Amino acid sequence: MLLSIFLALLLSCAGASAVFTVYLCLLWHATSRAADSNPFSKLPPLTGLSPSDIEKLPKTNGHGLVLGSECAVCLDKIEPTDAARLLPGCNHGFHLQCADAWLSKHSVCPLCRSKIEPELVRRSPENDNPC
Q1: Interatomic CA distance for residues 67 and 36, integer angstroms
Q2: Pairwise CA distance, residues 31 & 16, whole Å
Q3: Pairwise CA distance, residues 114 & 3, whole Å
Q4: Maximum Cα–Cα distance for the chain, whole Å?
Q5: Distance CA 64, CA 69 (A)
Q6: Is the CB of residue 82 less than 8 Å from the CB of residue 61?
Q7: What is the mean pLDDT of residues 12-35?
Q8: Distance between CA 126 and CA 35 in Å, rounded?
Q9: Which of 34, 61, 78, 127 has the most Cβ atoms closer than 10 angstroms to its Cβ?
Q10: At 85, phi and psi to the nearest 5?
Q11: Tally: H helices and E strands in the chain
């Protein structure tokens, strides 16, 4: 009788240990495989526009925006008297400070992710005014 109790305890502990070992092996395999297939590890580092390129982008106010009146960076409304930046190509507008902060780190539109190409960055007529 004592032997059967001992065998029952030994077999249940051995079974639980085997299940736990298999679980640890599967967990290790899943994490090592996930680290190799991380899509973000292959992305190039973020690079924004230079301050001189940002300054060449058109400036306007809230009245001059073509598409919408909400800044996608800060999610606040762009008032008609607020200074705004209009991105070439997609014509999305943002608060001037929000757009400049975003574009210093990223070279894409914060709303539609279209790339701001260097050839799209042109001096606007209002920036050419020396006064």
Answers
A1: 41
A2: 23
A3: 75
A4: 103
A5: 10
A6: yes
A7: 84
A8: 50
A9: 78
A10: -120, 130
A11: 4, 3
Looking at residue 120, the DSSP 8-state letter turns out to be G
Task: Retrieve residue 124's tokens.
Answer: 């606007």
This prediction has a pTM of 0.56
Task: Select from 93, 91, 87 the least CA-distant residue to 61.
Answer: 93
Tokens of 67: 């598409």
Long-range contact pairs involving 104-113 (C-beta distance under 8 Å, separation at least 24): 104/48, 104/49, 104/51, 104/54, 105/46, 105/48, 106/46, 106/48, 107/47, 107/48, 107/49, 110/72, 110/73, 111/72
64-103 pLDDT per residue, tens: 776 777 888 898 898 888 899 888 888 888 999 999 999 9
The hierarchical CATH code for the domain 51-104 is 3.30.40.10
Q: How far is CA 113 from the centre of its chain?
A: 10
Residue 64's Cβ-side half-sphere holds a number of Cα atoms within 13 Å equal to 15
